[in-house]
């Protein structure tokens, strides 16, 4: 049995890691490209602060007493199409300079549900200071009622007068000259366009409103909302990109993953004699426990996802659906661990040390040390690949509020996602995936040749075995807000060769630590620049987390081994 033992890195690896880290700093951390990776260091309200601000607005502008409020929910929303357009054409700074105070791209949507009524309010607040930028009635409302018998120009003047009660600056807008079927009035920007992005304002005035009104004009059935008109060519492009991403997610990832699930169960049964059925239980349980906790932590993110799709799924339905999905993924991770370890051991290679082995704790420490350096190599490679794709394909990023830190109840829990990804993806795509295809490729070559393939042929087939699971892994990420959709496919297929090589060279634990450390560094930097209080410290913890976990495992193993020896003696 050829046992892969994590060893010390020689100077070539250390120099490569140093170069990778420098590339990462130059391309991602420092604003060199200014597109795929941008940071915002402005102060951002916490969700609690946004909730307090919304209740203040509800009381001061809408005349709603606190005791009449039954429940509030806070959700970060982002105009992903506008973000994508501005990012692609490098217009973010110009747009924010002109419109950040009036029509911000990112807002907190605070839904206020009232007692003893089906009606409620949704207040949209800017994320820096909590200014009210838009609002709408939600619930059982008598549509957007207006006095449509008024002359059109009077109707527009009346609508703008109504909007001014809520802080709208009349000199920034002009009537678009159209009469809407629902009686609402639409205004467009009176300021210069930013590229071809032109903000609009829509006002619905409820019956009972008078310009000479009380401090609390009627809001039931009314609304003051905004958006951004973008070129039809761009919105059409984004729709097609999302359509392709959805199709590839279903037919290129979900359905093949179900097939891999079945195959993993089969190989667990046929190769269980080479390993232990206890392999992977702990990691699979940890994976599910972490994701379950993170699901409850990300309820606002789930709500943002359904909000974008125009759905009205309750938080409970979204949570249950997510938990079922993660339970299935945990089972796949378990069978991949057992089947993958059995496969490699049947082929004469041991890529995964066991807890009962005397040197297990030291193997974990060495895997962690190696993992940090491998992560630097991965960060540099990823940065270079994305930079090349940006310059050659015009790749650009948008926003996804469903994955936003601002939609986390406890943002400090974000780094735990690194463990979920590192555990599941390395066990599924690398340990089991590469092992499966290698056994198929080598087995086919053996049948065709009538003998064992040469070492060179086996090595080539092993490299080829990295591609199918790497492609499946890549297709599982096409839903991320990076365009065109095949940007991530190219990036991750190329990255899969590095991950596969690292597993074959240093073992599966080093690959897991490299993956976790890669994600932990990216998440840590995201926390440092997200504008939320105390997240800088959280970012530092995220980067140090893989080392902390490895040291804890090493200490636990040494302690239990010492106790076991004491009992035996």
Tell me the structural class: alpha+beta
Adjacency order of strands in the biggest sheet: 2-3-4-5-9-8-7-6
Percentage of residues in DSSP E strands: 5-15%
Number of helices: 16
Number of E-state strands: 12
Radius of gyration: 28 Å
Give a quick account of the main beta sheet: strands, pairing sense, barrel closure: 8 strands, antiparallel
Give the helices and strands as they follow along the chain. Answer: EHHEHHEEEHEEEEHHHHEHEHHHEHHH
Helix content: 55-70%
- Overall mean pLDDT stands at 89
Low-confidence stretches: 32-40, 141-148
End-to-end span in angstroms? 31 Å
Write a brief structural summary.
Helix content is 57%, strand content 11%.
Q: Would you give an account of this structure?
A:
The chain has helices spanning about 10-30, 45-60, 80-90, 90-100, 150-165, 230-270, 280-295, 300-310, 315-345, 360-395, 415-450, 455-465, 465-475, 485-505, 510-530, 535-569; strands at about 1-5, 70-80, 105-115, 120-125, 130-140, 175, 185-190, 200-205, 225-230, 350, 395, 480-485. It is α+β, with helices and mostly antiparallel strands and about 575 residues long. The strands form three sheets. It has an eight-stranded antiparallel sheet with strand order 2-3-4-5-9-8-7-6, with helices on both faces. Strand 7 (about 185-190) and strand 8 form a beta hairpin. Mean pLDDT is about 90; it is low at about 30-40 and about 140-150.
């Amino acid at each position: 049995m050829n046992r892969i033992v994590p060893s010390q890195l020689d100077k070539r690896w250390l120099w490569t890691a140093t170069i990778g880290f420098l590339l990462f700093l130059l391309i991602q951390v420092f604003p060199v490209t200014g597109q795929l990776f941008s940071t915002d260091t402005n102060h951002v309200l916490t969700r609690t602060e946004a909730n307090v601000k919304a209740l203040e607005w509800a009381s001061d502008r809408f005349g709603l007493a606190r005791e009449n409020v039954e429940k509030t929910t806070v959700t970060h929303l982002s105009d992903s199409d506008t973000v994508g357009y501005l990012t692609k054409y490098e217009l973010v700074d110009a747009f924010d300079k002109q419109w950040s105070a009036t029509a911000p791209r990112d807002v907190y949507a605070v839904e206020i549900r009232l007692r003893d009524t089906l009606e409620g309010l949704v207040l949209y607040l800017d994320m820096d200071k909590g200014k009210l930028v838009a609002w709408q009635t939600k619930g059982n409302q008598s549509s957007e009622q207006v006095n449509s018998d008024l002359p059109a120009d009077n109707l527009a003047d009346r609508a703008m007068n109504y909007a001014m009660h809520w802080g709208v600056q009349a000199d920034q807008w002009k009537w678009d000259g159209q009469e809407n079927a629902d009686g609402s009035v639409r205004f467009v920007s009176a300021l210069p366009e930013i590229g071809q992005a032109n903000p609009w304002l829509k006002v619905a005035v409820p019956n009972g409103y008078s310009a000479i009104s009380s401090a609390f004009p009627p809001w039931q059935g009314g609304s003051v909302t905004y958006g951004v008109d973008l070129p039809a060519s761009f919105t059409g492009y984004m729709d097609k990109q999302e359509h392709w991403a959805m199709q590839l997610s279903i037919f290129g990832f979900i359905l093949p993953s179900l097939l891999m699930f079945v195959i993993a169960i089969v190989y667990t049964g046929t190769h269980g004699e080479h390993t232990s059925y206890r392999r992977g239980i702990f990691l699979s349980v940890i994976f599910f426990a972490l994701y379950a906790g993170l699901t409850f932590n990300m309820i606002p993110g789930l709500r943002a996802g359904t909000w974008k799709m125009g759905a009205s799924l309750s938080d409970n339905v979204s949570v249950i659906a997510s938990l079922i999905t993660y339970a299935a993924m945990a089972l796949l991770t378990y069978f991949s661990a057992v089947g993958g370890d059995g496969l490699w051991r049947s082929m004469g290679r041991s890529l995964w040390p066991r807890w009962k082995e005397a040197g297990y704790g030291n193997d974990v420490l060495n895997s962690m040390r190696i993992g940090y350096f491998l992560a630097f190599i991965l960060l540099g490679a990823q940065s270079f690949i994305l930079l090349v794709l940006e310059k050659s394909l015009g790749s650009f990023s948008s926003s996804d509020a469903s994955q936003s830190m601002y939609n986390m109840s406890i943002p400090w829990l974000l780094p735990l996602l690194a463990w979920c990804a590192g555990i599941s993806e390395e066990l599924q795509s690398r340990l089991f995936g590469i092992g499966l295809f290698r056994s198929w490729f080598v087995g086919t070559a053996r049948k065709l040749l009538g003998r064992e393939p040469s070492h060179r042929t086996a090595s080539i087939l092993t490299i080829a075995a990295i591609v199918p699971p790497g492609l499946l892994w890549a297709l599982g990420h096409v839903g991320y807000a990076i365009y065109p959709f095949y940007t991530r496919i190219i990036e991750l297929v190329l990255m899969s060769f590095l991950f596969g090589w690292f597993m074959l060279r240093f073992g599966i634990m080093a690959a897991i630590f490299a993956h976790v450390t890669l994600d932990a560094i990216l998440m840590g930097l995201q926390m440092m620049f997200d504008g939320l209080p105390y997240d800088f410290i959280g970012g530092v913890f995220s980067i140090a987390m893989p080392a902390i976990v490895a040291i804890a495992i090493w200490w636990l193993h040494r302690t239990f081994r010492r106790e076991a020896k004491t009992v035996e003696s």
